[in-house]
């Protein structure tokens, strides 16, 4: 009996990767597909497919049991927040083991080695470190829970993609507007390693993980196997806009110098509090309170009787004041700390183990993948 004749449950089905898993299962002829849906209004993409939408949450054990039903295969793309990443994964594993699930594919991340993986992290033999990053460390803890259930008899496989791109990916839908608004700078010429995976290559690996007995109890890096830099990835998106201008470049030292000049914890907190109190959002919240709205409206109209200078000064204190972006140095956008960490690694993860044990062969290279992304971005009016 082929796995395509079995019942498959996908968690995180309304997300970028989970949504594509649902589409690919349908294309593969899988008749019995169940999708765990936490937020129904985000399910439009998969609701058009002949699959069963199961309301529930990874933190609600009863809903997981109902969603599983008689599923024999689980593809866990769900995420969670903070410790919810670990707790939700554990809940799903417990329900899967009780239901007699025959294969549990856990979509983890190469970020278990940190946002800036250190040399020595290129292969799956490297021990998982404590990174100090909550997301990275919780994903690492979740992996340990998965492997523990594997030792207890649940057939598990762990996949570790890094930068997954393709239609619907936030790596593109956020990058294009940022490029349009000048909110992108290359770091050290964009030479950092960008361990990309086209989404369909990742799902090919998922299907191989279901079929292959050698995969059991193993973790695999999944990338496209190409040495693509962040400069390559960002420039490819810039080319879609056709502006022809070179991207701004910042050295890592310039970025560090910029942040070293920023206010410390106390001064920065006081400044941020002052800005928040004077912001449009805070004033709009105050205007929801009838008594406050009456006072502010009265103050605003009373200020009309003042001279121009006094009126401008008063309204600047209590009115709507757009805040300038704090990360701009007026000529080049200064990346935030997470972007700097992500785009300054020098290692490329090896997919040799996935090739050897899974039979994984990335079939969509970067040139083809980025062309498909551009086609979708134009269809979606991003360009």
Question: How would you summarize the topology of this molecule?
Answer:
Elements: E1 7-11, H1 16-27, E2 32-37, H2 44-47, E3 52-55, H3 61-68, E4 73-76, H4 84-98, E5 103-107, H5 134-151, E6 156-161, E7 163-165, H6 170-173, H7 175-180, E8 186-187, E9 196-198, H8 199-211, E10 218-222, H9 230-241, E11 249-250, H10 252-260, H11 265-277, H12 280-286, H13 290-302, H14 308-318, H15 337-342, H16 352-358, H17 366-379
Parallel strand pairs: 1-2, 1-4, 2-3, 4-5, 5-6, 6-10, 7-9, 8-11
Short description:
By secondary structure, the protein is α/β, with parallel strands linked by helices. It has helices at 16-27, 44-47, 61-68, 84-98, 134-151, 170-173, 175-180, 199-211, 230-241, 252-260, 265-277, 280-286, 290-302, 308-318, 337-342, 352-358, 366-379, and strands spanning 7-11, 32-37, 52-55, 73-76, 103-107, 156-161, 163-165, 186-187, 196-198, 218-222, 249-250.
Please name the defining characteristics of this protein.
383 residues; alpha/beta; Rossmann fold; 7-stranded parallel beta sheet; two-stranded parallel sheet; 17 helices; 11 strands
Quote the beta fraction.
5-15%
CATH topology assignment of the largest domain: Rossmann fold
Radius of gyration: 25 Å
Low-confidence stretches: 320-330
- Integer count of domains: 2
What is the averaged pLDDT score?
A: 89
> Strand order across the biggest sheet?
3-2-1-4-5-6-10
**What's the CATH superfamily of the largest domain, by name?**
NAD(P)-binding Rossmann-like Domain
- Largest sheet features: 7 strands, parallel
Class by SSE composition:
alpha/beta
Q: How many H/I helical runs?
A: 17
CATH class descriptor of the largest domain: Alpha Beta
Helix content: 40-55%
Tally of strands:
11
